[in-house]
Amino acid sequence: MTDVQAALDAAGLTNPSVREYVEHWAGVTGAARVEVVGAADDARLIAESLEAGELLPAGEGRYYSRSYFKDTARAEQRTIVATSDEGDAGVYNNWRPAAEMKDKLIGLMTGASAGKTMYVIPYLMAPKGSKLENFAAGVQVTDNRNVVLQMIRMARVGVEYINDLGDSFVRAVHVTGDLENLGQGTPEDKRYFVTVADERTILHFGSSYGGNALLGKIAHGLRQGSYDGWKNGFLVEQFMLLGIVDKETGKRYNICGGFPSASGKTNLAMTLAPDALGDRYHVEFYGDDIAWLWVGDDGKLYGMNPENGVFGVAKDTNEKTNPTAVDSIEPGTGAIFTNVGYNTKTHEVWWEGKGPKPTDLDGWEDWKGDVIADRPADQADDAWAHPNSRFTTTLSNVPNMAADFEDPAGVEIHGVIFGGRTRDREPLIRAIHDVAEGVYDGLTLGAEATAAADGLEGVLRYDPMSMRPFMSYDEADYAAHWLEVFSRVTTKPIFAHVNWFQRGDDGRFLWPGYRENLRPLVWLMQYKNGEVSGVETPVGVIPARDELLLEGLGDQALADLDTVLTIDVDRWKQEMGYREKHLNQFAGLPEEIWEAHRRVAAALDAE
Ligand code: OXD
Ligand code: MN
């Protein structure tokens, strides 16, 4: 081991608590050397990774990488929230005692980085100067160079973010482990992804990919953040955040919201106005995955995206679904593609849903590195990209990034939306006035089970506030915390539920989605302002057909519009039974939530 203190001195890392932490983990992991990194090291680290073959070139200023093939997605069963208070155990957080998990992880990490460099990544999950800065700072140590490159894109990275923060930083320890011998998905699985929330310490062992390895994003930005928010009066959610600018009036509206996986959150976050509305409205991007929300001294709700980049799902990203994302990963952006198809000769990348599949197979390899042209006949149609393949790009590459994105004051939030994926029952949009009913709606958010064969058709897999995999404490406390935060908001945002996924009897989608989704959101803001009055239903207020801006909407969508603006009362009544069962899992749920449930049920019964 080289002299850790000398490496920290050379990097100007002066915070004594950080120095002590780094020294401690360098000792435990047995790393051969320590290197402190900042955003300015990116070009050098890229060059080193290319040289080492860990990255491959993907056109000018773009890069390609592969993870180990068994290390590709979230590992929910291996993800644990640990504290010293058993009362923190919830239905979804996989709670374990802190002492037990720390012992286990120290055991697994001891000596596990022998011979490797331990990179020290000081980071901030907020614009500098944010009032939540003390909760947003962290220092990740990792033995994986690719993780450093991903973190530089996804967070603000450098010693300047933590030198003055004393002990207010999250200790985020990542050790890759011997990926080929970890028994992923077997009873001998050795991976553990643990957030010791009451000690603000994250210990992840056994991955080099995604949220399991980039600890700023999910382990800190969501799990640790929401625990800190609970204890300190703010909210941390897996929410997108966008701004709508009305060019005619100059008014700006900011909407955040949660969507279960595969419900189009990133596409909505990065959307543009439909052509026909482009003269009047401009849409700005703030964030596609995480929002931190707090109550300002003026009684308004404020929000910010704590991230500095987009870690987007590549599959189905194209000019139609997400033109903004396509622009954000152009040559010269420094984007990194992981686990998509790759051409070793032309350095092109390809994924399912990118565009036409290349017909000339020369040079193409799939995400595992297998040569496509050599595939046996029975594998000829296998996907080229893994379904969770990703692109990583910094926010500065996003063309419609909001100008005030870096403002430490955050932006006022005017609307909070929840968007499920439901083939019937849920209208295009329904506005919800009442806070308890809004929180109730978030708690009963879900996406349809895909397994129709299990007799589950029409049954949701509930995903409260889209936080199910990231819950860090008990769900009843989570609901109470939302109500408490909102009790302090005097200028309230409006809640709404949206659904882009209604289908006709022939299975086709009844709403075109994508850029057209701006129409119901504009209606929501007009409704909030009292400019339109909507139609009352037992489950909220839906737009009257002529209140929606319909100019330029296609004929088919116009023909289907009445269907997406109706409430199927019988299906709703059936849903209320499922909801009751779902909510009954959460012992001690606040009475206001049950009252909201009963109010909606009674209104449906009265229909
Ligand atoms: C996720 C992610 O797992 O955003 O939700 O990476
Ligand atoms: Mn996410």
Secondary structure layout:
Layout: H1 4-11, H2 16-29, E1 33-36, H3 42-52, E2 56-57, E3 63-65, E4 79-83, E5 95-97, H4 98-109, E6 117-124, H5 133-136, E7 137-142, H6 145-154, E8 156-157, E9 170-175, E10 192-196, E11 201-205, H7 216-232, E12 235-237, E13 239-246, E14 252-258, H8 265-269, E15 281-287, E16 291-295, E17 301-304, E18 309-313, H9 323-328, E19 336-338, E20 341-343, E21 349-350, E22 364-365, E23 390-394, E24 411-412, E25 415-419, E26 429-432, H10 435-443, E27 446-448, E28 460-462, H11 475-487, E29 494-498, H12 518-528, E30 535-537, E31 540-542, H13 555-564, H14 569-584, H15 591-605
Parallel strand pairs: 1-6, 3-19, 4-5, 4-10, 7-9, 9-11, 14-25, 25-29
Antiparallel strand pairs: 2-3, 6-7, 6-8, 10-11, 12-16, 13-14, 13-15, 16-17, 17-24, 18-23, 19-23, 20-21, 20-22, 26-29, 27-28, 30-31
Helix pairs in contact: 3-6, 10-11, 10-15, 14-15
Model description:
27% of the residues lie in helices and 22% in strands. It has 15 helices and 31 strands. The chain is globular. Strand 30 (535-537) and strand 31 (540-542) form a beta hairpin. Helix 10 packs antiparallel against helix 11. The strands form seven sheets. Strands 1, 4, 5, 6, 7, 8, 9, 10 and 11 form a nine-stranded mixed β-sheet that branches. The termini are far apart. By secondary structure, it is of the alpha/beta class. Bound molecules: oxalic acid and manganese (II) ion. The site of manganese (II) ion has 2 residues, from loops.
